[in-house]
Amino acid sequence: MDDAGSTVTADWHELATRVLTGHALNRDEARAVLECPDEDLLELLAASYRVRRQHFGTQVQLYYLKNAKSGLCPEDCGYCSQSVISDAPIERYAIANEKTLLEGARKAKESNARTYCIVASGRGPSDREVNHVASVARKIKDELGLHLCACLGLLKPHQAQVLADAGIDRINHNLNTSRRHYPEICTTHTYDDRLDTLRVAHEAGMELCSGMIVGMGETADDILDMVEELRQLNAKSVPVNFLHAIDGTPLEKTEDLDPRYCLKVLCLLRLGLPATEIRIAGGREVNLRSMQAMGLYPANSMFVSDYLTTAGQTPEEDFAMVSDLGFEVVIGGHEAHDAPAAVS
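The chain above was modelled as a monomer; its predicted structure follows.
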């Protein structure tokens, strides 16, 4: 390798060393990670893995999703097969009953997932739906002791409190994209509406799970803005979705991603949010393809089995991938976290 290449390679490890001693990435450094030359990607992954290993060792946390309410959504999010403007051929049904949600929780436990995610489509839940999820949450806690995350749309303060009181540990509400780009993706609610839901979840005492969808026509600056916003939010878990362009949605022909860029995004999240759980979420099979396993060098969690309206690889394939890396799936109780910082 020539001298210039060696200099670039050495810089990733020097950056990782500074991150490990408390340095926060500046914008130029963050941009450099996204623009890392492909020939230096392995060194960037190695540097990012040093940070991941310091905070999480070789552990991988698994999440299991349950689509508790499908379709029937009045919002116009351009990526979503469940939106009012989507023609995607998906199942549409009202909120699942207690038996179905409990069966999903048992499946999560069988799949070695530490966190069970109850997801419902729609702008936001009714009080009846919130009370139903709260009732089921109590039974899941009693029977299985799973860490619980709910993603129910825009929440009102009293609804967030009901969920917190029932034992919901964490609320997921993704930023999805940057403030600048948001009107290009959705017009029926705003970026600030999303921040408001994260705020009321925090105020009710729940952890925050919030992340992004990469590949929706955003710029590098949009990605950098999201990373900074997530740092300010002190999100405990950051799911990184890579657009799975679904037929029948406005973004159905969007294919802007390659596996190498996806890995660079994951490295940026690890170096930018060193002690935060970074999860490879929707679209990993489609976009990372043969390089899926490499995503776990910067990331430390992933969904197991299927997503909301798209299929994932089998749990057995996920377990084999983790084992082949020499990593281990974390089984058992979820560690306690410090209370999140105030959401501004």
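The two ends are 47 Å apart (CA to CA).
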